[in-house]
Description:
- The protein is of the alpha+beta class.
- The protein has a domain at 41-128: CATH 2.40.50.
- It is built from three helices and five strands.
- The protein has helices at residues 3-39, 94-102, 131-164, and strands at residues 41-55, 61-72, 75-82, 109-114, 122-123.
- Strands 3-2-1-4-5 form a five-stranded antiparallel β-sheet.
- The protein is elongated.
Amino acid sequence: xxxxxxxxxxxxxxxxxxxxxxxxxxxxxxxxxxxxxxxxxxxxxxxxxxxxxxxxxxxxxxxxxxxxxxxxxxxxxxxxxxxxxxxxxxxxxxxxxxxxxxxxxxxxxxxxxxxxxxxxxxxxxxxxxxxxxxxxxxxxxxxxxxxxxxxxxxxxxxxxxxxxxxxxxxxxxxxx
Length: 176
């Protein structure tokens, strides 16, 4: 294989990795929030307590956790949840989690959303931030640039192949 085909193959691999990265970003950051908006039902949650959960010793990570009580179909549920019940990941940004905790006071009632298929799944803090989109910007830019050069390379390869093909002679015409 020539260097041109190796380059096209490498570009295909890069585009595949970008697509996988974009899809993973959507799966982790966008799809859960979309599911909450479209399928979860609104109810009231009574905030029993809150805490800043942490893990790790060298690189400490944080998460805002809440103990809530809520009623669905005359059944009372009480459980610990992360701010966004679908997002159980910790973050290095301590201040963002402190800000989430400061928005809620123990003993007050707040709107929350529960999953009608699994009443144990509840969301107190609806994520409406653009940070989920930030993780998609780099793969989209890389994909766009590589796609441009991939298309350009494919056109060059096609033209080079067309030039190598012998032209068709009309029957009876002599070879020059």
